[in-house]
Amino acid sequence: MKRVSKAWTGLCIVLLATFAQPVAAAGFTVVEASIGEMQAALREGRVTSRELVSQYLQRIATYEDRINAAISVNAGALAEADALDRERAAGRLRGPLHGIPVAVKDNIHTRHLPTTAGTLRLEGFVPPYEATLVRNLREAGAIILAKTVLTEMANWMVIGMPNNYSALAGFAFNPYDPRRDPRPGLDDGRPVLATGSSSSGSGTAASFWAANVGTETTTSIIGPASAAMLAAIKPTVGRVSRRGIIPVTLDQDTAGPMARSVADAAILLGVLEGSGADPADPATGRCAAPAGGDYTRFLDPASLKGARVGVPRAWFVDAVTLPGDTKPGGGVPADHKAMLDEAVAVLRAQGATVIDAADPPSVLASDAGANVMKKGSCSQSYARKGVDADCSVVLKYGFKRDFSAWLASLGDAAPVHSLRELREWNLAHAAAGTLRYGQASLDISDEQDPALPQDRARYEADRQRELRLVGPEGVDAVMDRHRLDALLFIGSRGSAFLAKAGYPSVAVPFGMVANGEGYPHGFVPRPAPLGVAFGGRACSEPRLIGIAHAFEQATQRRRPPGL
Q: Which of 82, 203, 251, 302 is 20 to 30 A from 322, alpha carbon to alpha carbon?
């Protein structure tokens, strides 16, 4: 269960202030309101930032017990809103998010709220510096209303932990079916409808705030967006600074926006990227930012006319037998395939040329060493050092290296001084719930020693293999061959693949599919949201945003949850 003493103190303070204030503003409602609509209402005097915050807080008060979307709420939000309203009245506008309430994932440093990664050892921890992206949000006028729940340690605690479960906050729920799973073996309190991955889009989907910032190492921006009928942009690694984000591995980590429309996500991306490279993150500067940091200039509803889009089918849609295997793997259910076929039809109707299938050569390779799908990431206890030849050490090695560097950046404020100390603390406090699902990913990471030449050599070999098979022999090869602008994936099926090379993708809400099988008699699961994602080469966000926006405008499939 959520630990009330820390997570809800701020909310109680805010609600006391909120209920003393008028909320309605000339009929304006925050429910499903876009950032553009809110800015227009603010500009025209039809609403104030205080009223936006008040409406959002009342929605949190009404529905949060069912969803558990926020791990903490900003007790100073109304005061921040008042200050921003005064600045607006004086003619000073900070940027495109002036007075707009947003949320950030709770592995992103904030100084006004704790940053916990959902782990008990970090309960109440306020880091000594803010994340660069948080500074950028504030400079653009955003109010950081809340920190969102996440899978503990951004899902590098143990693979297999239910989405959005953490020892600190418990289970979070998907607003499209906020019930517990009743199936035997799954009836441990987890949601019946998954939230997608370690980030959460539940609060944005339920209009608790205008948009939120997630982080992704493999699937945790695109996956939650698909699961909550949201648009999202997973940027090229290096476009948004990772300074002040508790890492999994900087080889693949990035933050990115999740919103109810591609337009809102585009606004946020420009803010998150900031005005230049961050000296504290050497990966920044990899991609050139658009003029003025304005990605909305690419929101052309005609962007699909003449576009060339490829559909990778092998493994991503259709099951295939990988070299050395005896049974096929991969593939998606029939209703997912039908939805993808429908998306292809939309693309063609809007003037795009669709290459179907357009399979990356590294997915089709008959040699196991050249097949990108053949070697997954080492993540479980059976992938310990010495018996991990069949999996990639990139994530477990990267976590040990980058988590240690993150702790060092905290100086004397560090809550622990090593990964080993964190693991030992979890073991000592197991009775408090630290190890409900174990910590196998932490365990196998702690075996790694970046100072050992043999560990570094193994990591570098695996890393170079992944970069080659996803880049020159994967995405780049198939896009060159067919002269493609983008690749189309169903849901988050392409996310882990693209993430190995740090490539971008943009998610768009699209439809509903069946939510599993095996439910007890009388329990009827509600349909599960499922989106599509357009992926491409490094730094191709401008083109992907245009294509995704045009697809979104042609389909208009997002529907709010029936809370």
A: 251
CA-CA distances (angstroms) from residue 35 to 104, 278, 305? 16, 26, 27
The Cβ of residue 290 has, within 10 Å, a number of other Cβ atoms equal to 18
Domain locations along the chain? 308-489
For residue 364, the cross-strand partners are none
Report the distance separating Cα 535 and Cα 358, nearest Å. Answer: 13
- The tokens for 489 are 């994936």
54 phi, psi to nearest 5 deg: -60, -45
Are the CB atoms for 63 and 157 separated by under 8 Å? no
Task: Name the residue among 362, 237, 366, 375 with its Cα closest to residue 312.
Answer: 362
pTM over 0.85? The answer is yes
Specify the residue for token string 């209402």: 41
* Strand ranges, E, within 475-555: 486-490, 505-513, 528-535
Q: Which residue is catalytic, options 105, 374, 375, 400?
A: 105
- Write out the two tokens for 366: 């008959």
- Residues 556 and 207: their CA atoms lie apart, in Å, by 18
Query: Is 391 in contact with 407 (CB distance < 8 Å)?
Result: no
Question: Max alpha carbon distance in the chain (Å)?
Answer: 70
- Among residues 494, 504, 551, 556, the alpha carbon closest in space to that of 307 is found at 551
Residue 441 among the catalytic residues: no
User: Residue 85, SS3?
Assistant: helix
Residue of 49, 54, 207, 220 with catalytic role? 220
Catalytic residue chosen out of the listed positions 49, 166, 197, 198: 198
Which two tokens mark 448? 């790694």
State residue 345's pLDDT score: 98
Picking from 99, 83, 101, the residue whose alpha carbon sits closest to that of residue 43 is 99
Annotated catalytic, 5? no
> Rounded to whole angstroms, what are the CA distances from 76 to 9, 15, 145, 209, 381?
12, 11, 9, 15, 43
Which residue has better confidence, 12 or 163? 163
546 pLDDT band (50/70/90 cuts)?
A: very high
Specify whether domain 308-489 bears CATH 3.40.980.10.
Answer: no
Is residue 6 within 8 A of residue 123, CB to CB? The reply is yes
The two three-digit tokens of residue 486, written as one number: 């983008």
Name 180's bridge partners. 191
362-381 burial, b if ≥16 CB within 10 A, otherwise e? bbbbeeeebbbbbbebbbbe
User: Tokens at residue 265, please?
Assistant: 């996500």
Report how far residue 540's alpha carbon sits from residue 289's, in angstroms, rounded to the nearest whole number: 11
Alpha-carbon separation of residue 75 from 10, 13, 72, 187, 551 (angstroms): 4, 6, 9, 35, 39
Over its C-alpha atoms, the chain yields an Rg (Å, rounded) of 22
Burial class (CB in 10 A: 0-12, 13-18, 19+), 44: exposed
Who's near 40: CB < 8 A, 6+ residues apart? none
Rounded-to-integer distance, Cα 147 and Cα 155, Å: 17
β-bridge pairing 170-171 and 165-166: antiparallel
User: pLDDT (tens digit, 9 = 90+) per residue, 282-312?
Assistant: 999 899 999 999 999 999 999 999 999 999 9
Q: What are the helix and strand counts (H, E) for the chain? A: 19, 13
Query: What gap in Å lies between CA 404 and CA 169, rounded to an integer?
Result: 24
